[in-house]
Amino acid sequence: KRPAGAPDTQLAKPVRKVGVIGAGLMASQFALLFARKLRVPVLITDLDQSRVDKGLEYIRGEVDKMLDKGRLTADDANQIKDLVRGTTDKSQYADCDWVIEAVFEELGVKQQVFSEIESIISETAILATNTSSLSVHEIGERLSHPERLVGFHFFNPVAVMPLIEVVRTPTTNDESLATAMVIAKKLGKSAVITADRPGFVVNRLLAKVMGEAARALDAGTPLPVVERAFAPIGLPMGPFELIDLVGWKVAAHVQDTMVAAFPDRFYASENLHRLAEVEEPLVKSKLGKVEDLSK
Ligand code: CAA
């Protein structure tokens, strides 16, 4: 059955090569998923070779883990490793049919990335952004063909979380939307089409939970106590462990976006920004004693 608002899948374009811009944790996770599920060449790139190498190393490590668990045959593992290549030379993206970015969550940076890539790719290639909460329409403002841009929002950990938010802007055409829906299905994910509104659907809800947890922290409740207080409501992890997973900078950015969009509905926490500057994951440094505290 076709999901609400979904176009005819017949309109989807073939994807023979995927381009991923960014080689950070999110980008590396979905680059691997594209190679594993679509079995097409996947390129990753970043600001410099060392970041690209780090992404490739992560991907190869994850493939090895799947091999060890018996989830992949040795042939499959080798094929997947071979399909994912890294480069700092964007001209190699010229023949990609689908290019998705997961670079720094700043509007200007993402606009710049797409302007550059649009000058390289073919007229028919489709562009996607994994932005968590920025306006997809604004990200595409500098494109000559904004109709080919679609939001394609993954969740962490990409291999496990079943959902993709496919974001339709006022200009996204049916071909791009259909391609996104077909890709999501091939990746083994459920896709929902969401409007291009701050936080889409999931982050609008999560920012509430994280914001209230941050509010308790700001009011002086110790961090592990807030974490423990959330346990009985049955979430798979507490709010701060979840922030640790998605990244404190990302969480602080989502919160900023929501507060800017709806100042009367979302809470701006100074602490969240302060903690976002702490390098070491807080789960390891501060939450290690959560279990002890629950006694
Ligand atoms: N990468 C790949 N696989 C992972 C993984 C990772 N980072 N973390 C866990 N897994 C896999 C494990 O390998 C395991 O797979 P197998 O069964 O094949 O061995 C499976 O997931 C379950 O893992 P665990 O048994 O270790 O742990 P768990 O059952 O406690 O589940 C969890 C871990 C899936 C992370 C769970 O705690 C959970 O669902 N947490 C909530 C995650 C969530 O809400 N994510 C959305 C965040 S919002 C976001 O990402 C978007 C944004 O814009 C901010």
Walk me through the structure:
With 295 residues, the chain is α/β, with parallel strands linked by helices. The chain folds into two domains: 9-195, NAD(P)-binding Rossmann-like Domain (Rossmann fold, 3-Layer(aba) Sandwich); 202-288, Orthogonal Bundle (N-(1-d-carboxylethyl)-l-norvaline Dehydrogenase, domain 2), CATH 1.10.1040.50. The protein has 13 helices and eight strands. An eight-stranded mixed sheet has the order 3-2-1-4-5-6-7-8, with helices on both faces. It is globular and about 55 Å long. The chain starts with 17 loop residues before the first strand and ends with a helix. Residues 288-295 have low confidence and may be disordered. The structure holds acetoacetyl-coenzyme A. Acetoacetyl-coenzyme A binds at residues 132, 155-157, 159-161, 203, 206, 236-237, 242, 246, 250, 254.
Instruction: Give the strand line-up of the largest sheet.
Output: 3-2-1-4-5-6-7-8
Radius of gyration: 20 Å
3D shape: globular
Bound molecules: acetoacetyl-coenzyme A
Order of helices and strands: EHEHHEEHEHEEHEHHHHHHH
How many discrete domains? 2
List keywords for this structure.
N-(1-d-carboxylethyl)-l-norvaline Dehydrogenase, domain 2; 13 helices; 8-stranded mixed sheet; alpha/beta; 2 domains; 295 residues; binds acetoacetyl-coenzyme A; single chain; Rossmann fold
Q: What's the quick description here?
A:
The chain is 46% helix and 12% strand.
